[in-house]
Each structure stands twice: as C-alpha cells, then as structure tokens.
Amino acid sequence: MSAKKPNILFFGIDSLRRDHMSGYGYSRLTTPYIDKLASQGVLFEQHFSPSIPTTPAYASMLTGMDVFGTDVVALRHEGPLGGHVDTLAEVLEANGYNTTCIGFTGNPSARGFQNYLNYESWLPEEESGRAPKAENLNDVAIPELERLAAEDKPFFLFLRHMDPHSPYLPPQPFERMFYGKDEKDPSNTSMEPVYDFKPFGDYLKSWIGEDVTDHEYVTAQYDGSIAYMDIAIQTLFTKLTDMGIEEDTLIVITSDHGETLYEHDCYFDHHGLYDCTLVVPLIIKFPGRVPAGKRVSSVSVISDIMPTVLDLLQIETNTPYDGRSLNAFIKGEADSSLEKTELYITECTWMRKHGWRTPEWKLICSLEPDFHHKPEIELYNLIRDPQENENVADQEPEVVAFLQQRMNEYIAKREEEVNRTNPIYTNTNWHGQNKIFTSSQEAYDSLYIGSINNARKLQQKEKEQEAAKETVESND
Prior knowledge:
The chain contains 15 helices and 13 strands. It has helices at about 30-40, 55-60, 65-70, 90-95, 135-150, 190-195, 200-210, 215-240, 275-280, 305-310, 325-330, 395-420, 425, 440-445, 450-475, and strands at about 5-15, 40-50, 50, 100, 115, 155-160, 250-255, 280-285, 295-300, 345-350, 350-355, 360-365, 375-380. The strands form two sheets. An eight-stranded mixed beta sheet has the order 5-4-6-1-7-8-2-9, with helices on both faces. Helix 5 (about 135-150) runs parallel beside helix 8. The longest helix is centred in the middle third of the chain and has 28 residues, at about 215-240. It starts with 6 loop residues before the first strand and ends with a helix.
C-alpha cells in the first residue's frame, strides 16, 4: 500500500490585514502563534488581494484565476461560479482527497467540497455580549479533523475564520488586551463621524455601543479579535502534532481581504481600494518541502495560491492559471520574468471602482458615484504618501493619463484572452437594487445595513438564494 499523500489544512481568515499581525511588523503582539508557525515555514511579505471583497477574493483564491478568469467581481455575485474553472476542492477530490469546508456554506466561491459544516460566526453570546467565533469554529473543526485523519485518503480541510470580520467582539480578556483608557470619555468625539454615516451607523452602534466615544477602542477590539483567534488556531496546531500528522500536512494561512478601520471614511469595514483593504498575509508551512524561516519580498497575489499548493503537492493539471506557482520564489530561483509589480485592482462591495497599482502610484477610478462623495479619480503617491491621504490627481494629470492607459491596455488584453467583457463593467446590479447610481447622495440614501441581525440575515438570504439556484441547476 502506497503512503498517503500530504494533507492540507487551509486557513482562509476573513478581513485580516497583514499590517496588524506582529509577524509582519505590527507593534502589538497580535499573532504570536501564527508568527511561530511562520518561523517554521515561508512568509510572503507583499501579498495582495487585488479584487475585493469576499466573493471575488475567495473565487480567485480557490481557482487560481483573476476576476477575468472567474467572472466573479461582486460581493452579491449573481449566479454560480463559472463552470469554465475547476476549484481547488474539485481538483483535489479528483486526485483522491476527502474535502471539507467549514464556514462557507452556499457561497459560489466555495464550490466542490464534499462536506460543508457551519458554526456561529456573527452573533454574540447573550450572557457575555461577546462572540467566541474561533472557539465555535474549533468545536466543529476538531471532530472533523479527527474524522478526516482516520480515513485512508488524504484530506483538504478549509477553515473560514471570521474573528477579524465585524462585529469585533472578542471574549475576555482580549477585549481590553490592547486598550487601557476610557472608551466612553465624553470629551472624545472621534466616533461621531462613524455613527453619523447613515448607511453603517446603526449597524456599528448595534455592536460597538452608542456610548463608546473613542475610535481607538474599536481598533483595539479588532486587534484583540486577531489575538484571540491566534490562540484558538494554536489549539488546531497542537491537535495536528498530537495526532502525529503535522509532518505530513501542508498548512496555508491567508485572508480574502484586509479591513478599513478608522481610515478613508470607510469605517470598520472592507471597502475602498486603499492598501489597508488590499494587504493580506500568506504563510505556508510544509515540513521538509519548504524552508523554515524564509521571507519572500516579491509581490504575490491571491490567485497564486492554488497553483502553488498544487505545485507543492506535485499535482499536475492542464489548466493555464492566471496565478503563478510561488515555488520558485520559495526556492530563491525566481527570475525577473516571474516578478509582478503592477496590479489591476477592483472593488464591488458598497462601491463599484477599479484601478491600477504600481510600486510608486495608486490610481482609483469610480464607475458609479460612491456613497462617500469621493472624487471620480483618485491618485496617490505610495512612496511619499503610503497612507494614501493626499489625492494628487489634479496636480499630476500626466500620471493619471499614463496609468489609465496602462490599465485600459491590460483590460483589453485580458478581455481578449477570456473572450468576455470585464465583469466590473457587467455587474451593474452589484447592490441588488436594479439601478446604476447617478449621484453620491442617491447611493448614500440607498445603501443601509442595519443591525448585526440584519447583516447576518442579509448574508443568510444570499446563501439560501445561491443554494436554491444550485439545486435548480443540478436538477435541470
């Protein structure tokens, strides 16, 4: 009997920005256990999610394709993931793997798993008012890990952690781990613009609390959620070791997108094409196959993950992926032809925009007026202004024209290659309201989240609609 192929434990952590992880240089010690795992594997220092939010990002992560390849660009994607692509779960099943996905039921981007399991990842506990999301996930994941490990086949276990996704409600003692002031200080007015933003105000009040006045407290809740999740993830690492399968398991840790905290008016959410939303971690540990303690400084993107995983597992497909295997970077053998320095970026969450990012410049172009009343064209010099606070589009018209040309040439090239129109142009019902916004005020008045319960129901409704569509399609 031949030896079992390596297992895969894949952490898809929602809304985790890499610059809030201690292993990526953050001043707060938020991720000591993930940092330790990174020291045993490879950490990619400049990993990006070019197309936000969740749905297109996971589609890219789990297919190796960009938005042109997946045809998925919007949070509220209409229809299933395109049948022209195979997901990582489908490829691995065809190669003898058992596959389970936890926390992503019904989303088109997670097509092809044999088993889907869920856990409570939104609502706080009634007694404490806090949300132990990662422990809820562990309660489901550990029995499933034991079941999969006992099988003759290798396994692919995908975990969608939700701790860094709002609401940020880490249990004690993590809620005060990074905050020692008075969050209800009446002289602090920093939360006023947050609560005055009508589309999100009621949702944010429903879990932050109307009496919280200090925005730094909310960011500390985000960081505390990451630290809490990090400890819960350590429980899974320990389980792997105690089961004796750590050496035979490829571990991948990444995220679908980052998070805007108190930046760019996009409070405590993940919209806006600023780097805080685009920067995500990528850490790979595979004992004996990837070096320990390696840090890769070259730019990598979310569509590189599937080709890299298949390369490390020595599984060949005939698919021409949009992403590249990062194995050459891991081995230090990558030549200049593999380097990726310019990125086409898209968002279709609460705003519909696209843009072009180079090491020096960031161009953002609105395709509809947005609910923040931002200008149609934004340009930032990432060298002089890495926080992207000074829009220099009016001062640098030649740079704007040059970057627009680069972007449009790239779009035309990709449209020709896939023989489809750029999905950012065709997903005009991204908000589900069957119209294109003609003014920022119209967008502001039309987009409203509500409470935690409403936000959760909105997501649940979309899941149910998607599951119903897939049932109809499978019966046709």
